[in-house]
Amino acid sequence: MQKIRNIAIIAHVDHGKTTLVDKLLHSSNLFREGEESGELILDNNDLERERGITIVSKNVSIQYKDVKINVIDTPGHADFGGEVERVLKMADGVILLVDAFEGPMPQTRFVTQKALGLGLKPIVVVNKVDKENCRPDEVYESVWELFFNLDANDEQLDFPVLYGSSKQGWMSTDWKKPSESFEPLLDAILEHIPPAPTNEGTLQMQITSLDYSSFVGRIAIGRVARGVIKENQPISLVKRDGKIVKSRVKELHTFVGLGKMKVSEVKAGDICAVVGIDGFDIGDTLADFENPEQLEVIHIDEPTMNMLFTINNSPFFGKEGKFVTSRHLHERLYKEMEKNLALKVVPTDSADAFLVYGRGILHLSVLIETMRREGYELQVGQPQVILKEIDGQKCEPVEILIVDVPAEVSGKVIELVTQRKGELLIMETKGTLQHLEFEIPSRGIIGLRNNVLTATAGEAVMAHRFKSYEPWKGTIPGRLNGVLVSMEKGQTTAYSIDKLQDRGRFFVDPGVDVYEGQIVGEHIRENDLVVNIVKGKQLTNMRASGSDDNTRIAPAIKFSLEESMEYIQGDEYIEVTPKNIRLRKIYLKEADRKVNAKKFQ
Prior knowledge:
The chain is of the alpha+beta class and about 600 residues long. Helices cover about 20% and strands about 35% of the residues. The protein has 15 helices and 35 strands. The radius of gyration is 27 Å and the shape is globular.
């Protein structure tokens, strides 16, 4: 019987998790001599590589001393918590990766809490000890404190700790004595992580993630909890609500290295991919054909935010996208719901619009960005937090916000956060930075990042995590400045932008097509201003010394998708196409905006 260890790797965004997996794969000699493998092997979709974050968890396996180690790479961002909670069900232990300077961060806390709650055995790796001003010993203390605060049991508190640098490719039990390889970590996994239990009995396997192949359709991935699953075996699919559907396994694959290998049977404890089962959802159980027994259904934290997704109805509709109708939008959103557990789609009164519920701005923006790259055109409204009534009181989601910022600008940050109903809980010095912790309504975080980065010249590091629903904190001031709205459809001219520069800052360059009702800039006052930026210069055959000066235009401000989502107000939409992100008013004509102004107050 092959010995198996199942481990998940958890860490905060950018603490070196995917790099660690790269090095583990290299150290197990998966690649032939001279084979080009590249870096960040597991972050294989474009979005993950560009943002430098893991969005979808992935499975690989390595062989070490006759033991198969299944490694599950998890997202570190709380917005993808739905992804993390279910993949931890496949693991028997976790490697908690912590940066030697930053220490445990809020997102680490979120995932660690889930892992300790499931009773998984942790190994702590303090990474990046080659960085300047790192503080490995203090970080070790703070990890112990974190575990203690999260009610870890005695066995979990007695965790082994390793120090090292994933980038340089070494791990050691003493950070002052670098070793030559990753073997100390692999040995620690074999020593401390319990082997996968082999439970005898009838088949039980919970589907915890999905794969998709254009040849065979949806593939169910999970860990066999009990018994044996065989090729061609008739089975029962037990749905979340207890309904039973009879089915049959067509093919079985286990994970080997970066790929999969076809096998005839998989025993309890191993992770496998099952082909040929229709109509399954994540959380369903594959069980014995005659006497099906359901495993406990995975509970996922509820969404905290929603956004309106609607078809693009701007004057530039259909010029850039391939999929533009409400049928395309409907099919794509419901397809996403099958594999994205924390997402919920609800139809609205209008056939063209859908309310999409998610875990936060990043969670929703990754979906929009993915759709945009696939060739979809759509419009999205302002993100709204989800309110609840608890004991007759209106309640809203509240988050813990952590900001690390140079001491001289910490006052500005505190001022910005308190304006948005944030309360300062902790203020302490960490090296050259000031460490601030606040409690703030989720509404207050929307649009805050831009302001904080502007006030601190881009030096603030922000992270936040959901805490709980608490009573409504009152109104929060919105955007301070109004916007400049285009009066006509046409091409922007340098002449008119130059003449209007004293009115505000522009989001568009000269020579760009705009339409009536499109937002083209930010006004210097708090009201909206309609401007004509397509007017050309009146040409005459007379020369004048003053009027022929060259135009000097400040560069246009370019928003990313998340910045746009944080910027818009209730009466505005973001138009998202494969080539452009434009901001616009919901009502394009000024007369309609005046008539409907009351709706958005």
